Amino acid sequence: MPHTLVAGNWKMNGLRTDGIALARELVRKAQSAKRYPQNRIAICPPATLLAPLAGFLMGSPIGLGGQDCHMAEKGAYTGDISAKMLKDTGCQYVILGHSERRSAHHETDAMVRAKAKAAIEAGLHVILCVGEDLVSREKGNPEQQVADQLRQSVPDNADPAHLSIAYEPIWAIGTGRTAGPHEIARMLQALASSLPSRPAAGLPFSFLYGGSVKADNAAELSRIPEVGGFLVGGASLEADSFWAIVEAAEVSKF
Ligand code: PGA
């Protein structure tokens, strides 16, 4: 089975005091869990909290990730952060191609692909987001649309050990609506078969689901065989709800 991953996307939330308190509580939960977590777990706070949280998380089962990176290693890119800088700050992960960046920052598939390549070269594990909006869904065949987006966003020869794919229907993000289990399974099967098989790499790509994952729907979503974890937004801002999702994934995947 590919590695499963539960990642929290804090988005633009968290000042120093509450961000540190949340990370501290998650570490406490991880340490007091009956069994050492088998899934990989990560939190992706705003860039301002990466350095302060890196110290707290060191030696814990909780990894650290950025929410974006630039495709260049360094240079005259005011306001941007390179993959190498994330790595240098203590990150192991980076979220790329989130729909909020694709829409608000006009990120194209080609840009996401270049960023993913840079991130993998810097030694980060990429959480690459894809997903359809409601208009495209209603037009029919969202699988085709998302598969095209995925093929154009994944770098050539990307090793599944270094990249997970997060399927996040845009209409499900922050809305309280989730795709149904059958819809998710059908989409993930279509996405898996749209990528070239990579026998040399050993493992297939791991697929996460994201979009209104909560403590009370995580168990049902975890039982979808194609789902290899979650990318969690709103529910990752509170230790109890994020940890309930981590535990739901633990129960059904291990
Ligand atoms: P949500 O966000 O869980 O709040 O819907 C998910 C995401 O945007 O990654």
Task: Provide an overview of this structure.
- This protein is of the alpha/beta class.
- 41% of the residues lie in helices and 15% in strands.
- It has ten helices and eight strands.
- The chain has an eight-stranded parallel β-barrel with strand order 1-2-3-4-5-6-7-8, surrounded by seven helices.
- The protein starts with a strand and ends with a helix.
- The model has no long low-confidence stretch (mean pLDDT 93).
- 2-phosphoglycolic acid is lined by residues 9, 168, 173-174, 210-213, 231-235.
Which characteristics define this entry?
eight-stranded parallel barrel, binds 2-phosphoglycolic acid, 10 helices, single chain, 254 residues, alpha/beta
Q: How is the biggest beta sheet arranged?
A: 8 strands, parallel, barrel
SS-derived structural category: alpha/beta
Return the string of H and E elements: EHEHEHEHHEHHEHEHEH
Strand order of the largest sheet: 1-2-3-4-5-6-7-8
How many helices? The count is 10
Shape field: globular
Number of strands: 8
Task: Round the mean pLDDT to the nearest integer and report it.
Answer: 93
Radius of gyration: 17 Å
Q: Which blocks of ≥5 consecutive residues have pLDDT under 50?
A: none
Cα separation of the termini: 10 Å
Percent helix, as a range, is 40-55%
- β-strand percent reads 15-25%
